[in-house]
């Protein structure tokens, strides 16, 4: 009975000054909708950045890190201060690429986290077309597995990626590289290796990843013809690229398999720490801005509740004189705050989703993007509603506690 009476009194307070109630609801609505929008937008930006990064970057890379720094060999074999005369110093030939790649590939395929793996033969070359020449990277690839790791077929601008498997004389060029060399499909491009070997290939297609440094310097050739160009055997590879189910676990998996073979095993986050740092900073900014908006909305509710209590102070005193306990007064004003929180929260979730969908359809034509990125995660909506209710509860509890401590005798006497 008392609970029903408290609710009726709270309903009267809510409806007696609709403008004040509406302002409080709008504060919560705005805070929650901005929380949803900011987090959806930042998550969308991070997802796009991740997709772009992994168009040319695997989760884990295995490669030969080259010889150690031997610029001061004397200090390693002689005491400090020893004077040595060395003539015609030369770098001793070291092993290039990865030996026994078949065994390493077989071992990696047994790892439970693995989802895709591909060997590569990468070499720096000169691409030439008449007087135009560009220093770039020729990547010899296993056509099917390369597509499983990098989804390169989705970045094709011209030509069919699978055709590379059957064309030993065919090459795919980045759009920027083709433009610099003034080449189009069916033209010929000359490739010059560091060993002075020159060979001409036919352009059978172009690709565009959206990463300018890749599109302006990279070309793909089937791995067999690449080995022939470099006069290497069928086991020769320079890199093994690995994708796992959860790329956030790449560092842990890389550290676990690294001791098995004598080559550098590096996760994407270790070689590109700026990507992870940028992603985390954007998340922090989004949460900070959103929480600030919610706190501002909370202060608005706090002020409105305080004003309501000051205006209703004589009525509160009369209620207490009639036998209402402090607990009842607290319940009335907390009910008031929570109704504002729930109504504002529900409307805020709908408004946040509407704003996100609208912004998602704004044209934004840069690289491979056609619209502003947006992600729709149920967690963002759940957290927004929970934070909104928590903020309104705190904003309502403090004035409610103040109202429950009012001495009716002092108020009625004036």
State the main characteristics.
single chain; 414 residues; alpha+beta; 2 domains; two-stranded antiparallel ribbon; 15 helices; 53% helix; elongated
In terms of DSSP E residues, the strand content is: 15-25%
Order of helices and strands: HHEHHEEHEEHEEHEHEHEHHHHEEHH
Number of domains: 2
Helix/strand class: alpha+beta
Averaged pLDDT = 83
Radius of gyration: 33 Å
Q: List how many beta strands DSSP finds.
A: 12
- What's the total helix number? 15
What percentage of residues falls in helices of 4 or more residues? Answer: 40-55%
What does this structure look like?
The chain is of the alpha+beta class. It has 2 domains: 5-53 and 277-413, no CATH class; 65-70 and 94-262, no CATH class. It has helices at 2-16, 18-53, 74-77, 101-109, 143-150, 175-180, 212-215, 223-230, 250-257, 268-271, 273-311, 313-321, 326-360, 378-404, 408-413; strands at 60-63, 114-129, 132-141, 156-158, 170-174, 188-192, 198-207, 218-222, 239-244, 264-267, 363-366, 369-371. The strands form 2 sheets. A 6-stranded mixed β-barrel has the order 2-3-8-5-7-6. The protein has a two-stranded antiparallel sheet with strand order 11-12. Helix 2 runs antiparallel to helix 11 (273-311), helix 11 (273-311) runs parallel beside helix 14 and helix 13 runs antiparallel to helix 14. The longest helix has 39 residues, at 273-311. The radius of gyration is 33 Å and the shape is elongated. The model has no long low-confidence stretch (mean pLDDT 83).
């Amino acid at each position: 009975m008392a609970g029903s009476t408290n609710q009726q009194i709270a309903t009267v307070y809510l409806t007696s000054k609709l403008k004040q109630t509406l302002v409080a609801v709008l504060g919560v609505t705005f805070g929650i909708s901005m929380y949803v929008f900011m987090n959806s937008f930042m998550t969308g930006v991070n997802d796009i950045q991740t997709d772009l990064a992994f168009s040319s970057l695997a989760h884990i890379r295995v490669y030969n890190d080259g010889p150690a720094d031997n610029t001061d060999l004397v200090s390693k074999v002689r005491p400090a201060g020893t004077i040595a005369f060395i003539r015609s110093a030369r770098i001793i030939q070291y092993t290039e690429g990865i030996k026994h790649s078949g065994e390493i590939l077989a071992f990696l395929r047994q790892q439970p986290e693995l989802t895709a793996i591909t060997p590569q033969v990468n070499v720096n070359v000169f691409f030439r077309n008449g007087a135009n020449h560009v220093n770039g990277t020729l990547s010899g690839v296993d056509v099917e597995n390369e597509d499983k790791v990098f989804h390169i077929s989705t970045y094709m601008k011209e030509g069919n990626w699978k055709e590379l498997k059957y064309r030993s004389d065919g090459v795919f060029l980045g759009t920027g590289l083709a433009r610099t060399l003034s080449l189009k499909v069916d033209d010929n491009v000359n490739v010059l290796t560091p060993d002075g070997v020159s060979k001409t290939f036919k352009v059978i297609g172009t690709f565009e990843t959206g990463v300018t440094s890749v599109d302006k310097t990279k070309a793909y050739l089937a791995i067999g013809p690449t080995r022939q160009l470099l006069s290497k055997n069928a086991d020769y590879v320079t890199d093994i690229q690995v994708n796992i189910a959860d790329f956030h676990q790449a560092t842990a998996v890389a550290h676990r398999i690294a001791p098995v073979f004598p080559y550098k095993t590096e996760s994407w986050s270790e070689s590109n720490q700026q990507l992870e740092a940028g992603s985390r900073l954007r998340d922090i900014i989004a949460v900070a801005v959103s929480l600030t908006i919610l706190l501002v909305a909370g202060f608005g509710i706090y002020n409105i509740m305080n004003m309501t209590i000051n205006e209703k102070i004589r009525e509160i005193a009369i209620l207490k004189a009639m036998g209402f306990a402090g607990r009842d007064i607290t319940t009335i004003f907390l009910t008031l705050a929570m109704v504002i929180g729930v109504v504002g929260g529900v409307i805020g979730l709908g408004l946040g989703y509407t704003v996100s969908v609208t912004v998602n359809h704004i044209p934004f034509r840069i690289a491979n993007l056609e619209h502003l990125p947006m992600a729709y995660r149920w967690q963002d909506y759940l957290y927004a509603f929970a934070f909104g209710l928590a903020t309104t509860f705190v904003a309502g509890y403090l004035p409610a506690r103040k109202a429950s401590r009012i001495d009716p005798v002092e108020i009625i006497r004036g």
